[in-house]
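hey can u run this one w/ flavin-adenine dinucleotide bound, need the structure tokens asap thx
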Amino acid sequence: MRVAVVGAGVIGCSVAERLQRGGHQVTVYERDTVGAHASGAAAGLLAPFSEDERDAGARSLRLFPGLAQRLLEETGIDVQFHDMDSLTPAFDPEDETVLRRGGGRWLDVFELRRLEPGLHPDCRGAVLFPESQVTPPRLTQALAAAARGRGTEIREHSPVAAPEDVEDADLVVLAAGPWTADLAAAFGLEVPVWPSRGQLVRLRPAPARPAPLNRMLTHGGRYLVPKPDGAVVAGSTEEEVGFDARATADGIRGLLDFARRMVPALGDATVEEVWAALRPATFDGQPIIARASERIIIATGHNRNGILLAPITAEIVAGLVDGG
Ligand SMILES: Cc1cc2nc3c(=O)[nH]c(=O)nc-3n(C[C@H](O)[C@H](O)[C@H](O)COP(=O)(O)OP(=O)(O)OC[C@H]3O[C@@H](n4cnc5c(N)ncnc54)[C@H](O)[C@@H]3O)c2cc1C
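ok here u go:
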């Protein structure tokens, strides 16, 4: 089948790679460049437990080791997938009660201090989950390269504005992130998805000190992610400000306050980079992966977990394509 995929973020590239591997002939249309938006900006947590994506998220995470290995062999790109535990610390008895109910392994204050001496002394314990991380720009580029290697054509700087732009295709997958609502409207469809801005800051801990944090940390929707090069990425805001993808003084200040509150030594870190991007948000926080008409499939709305959910999304879309 000739399939047009609109959008070369992690979702479009993952779908293209999977469909091409399944014997379809795929063309990807991208308005800008591969991974130019959220998929090239994300922090890279693969966190089904701390993000409460325990069903689809956990199934998707299980696909990552094989995918990362295959992408390395086929493209030479190391997506830096690796296991890394995550911690959610408790600062008061209410926090502790809620966290202890949510599964995971509870670490009391003594074990926590032994494992993470850099955490704020007010932490009274933490729940630990076995989770993982990846480097999202590499993942998106590797998926695109693997798809290309199997015969997919990826047309960058090629916006789709109307059905005529993809009239050669037997099937069209709309995977345009937060822009999918406008795109779908051009196809006569209503897709309730909108932008949610997330800001991030990369901190470089002061040299010649022990690493301030050895595991990922999540708390109240924010997180700290130690990266393979020693940096710590602090994220993220969740703001409904339309298609405004700027990093702002208020947003970054909030993230810096969070980082210092969790790990005081990060107050001395170098601020290396700040950036922002737009997540595709939905009413219930769940993605929309569905056949919208005989010729159109929607794959968007992955909000905070599109990197995590990319492999399982590709499998679901392949099922929709091949299952009729
Ligand atoms: C700050 C931040 C941190 C995040 N951290 C994580 C994380 O740690 N873990 C995780 O799992 N997820 C994370 N996410 C979420 C994840 O990044 C997104 O869910 C995911 O990238 C969405 O991918 P996408 O392909 O749907 O959208 P996008 O990456 O936005 O890609 C859509 C593409 O479609 C293109 N496009 C739009 N309109 C058209 C058109 N008309 N024609 C052609 N092309 C078009 C755009 O140019 C864009 O390249 C984070 C997001 C943000 C913002």
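The first strand starts at residue 2 and ends at 6. anyway lmk if its weird
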